[in-house]
Amino acid sequence: MDGNPAGSKKRKTPDSVTLNACTNCKKARSKCDGQKPACKRYQLLAEMERLRTENHHLAQRNRALNEKNGMMEHIFQSLSYGKHSDKIIHRLERGECQQSIVD
User: Can you say whether the dihedral through the CA atoms of 37, 40, 41, 47 is positive or negative?
Assistant: First the structure.
């Protein structure tokens, strides 16, 4: 034996202990650096959420632009073949939306 009573194990303590961990880290049982107003872990999580939301909005915008691009290609193709060119140009000059022209 190494001098400890039988069955007792000494718990290893970390080098630095934060006495006032934030609520989020306490709930998650995570390490906390105790910085105020927000710990590093919370700042990183908040930044990840912001980027995830921004990515979602950019993906929506990308889909909308691709749809608009498809409509414009359809209009240009109709113009290049001469199909209803005068009608299409007149509708564009009046400011009609691409969707109504394609339909």
Answer: positive
| pLDDT one-digit tens code per residue, 4-61 | 556 667 766 656 656 788 888 888 888 888 888 888 888 899 999 999 999 999 999 9
Kind and range of the H or E element at 75?
A: helix 40-80
Count the Cβ atoms, other than its own, within 10 Å of residue 33.
14
In terms of Cα–Cα distance, which of 47, 2, 39 is closest to 23?
Answer: 39
Is the torsion defined by CA of 18, 19, 25, 30 positive or negative?
positive
With beta carbons less than 8 A apart as the criterion, state whether 32 and 25 touch: yes
What is the DSSP-derived secondary structure letter of residue 11?
A: P
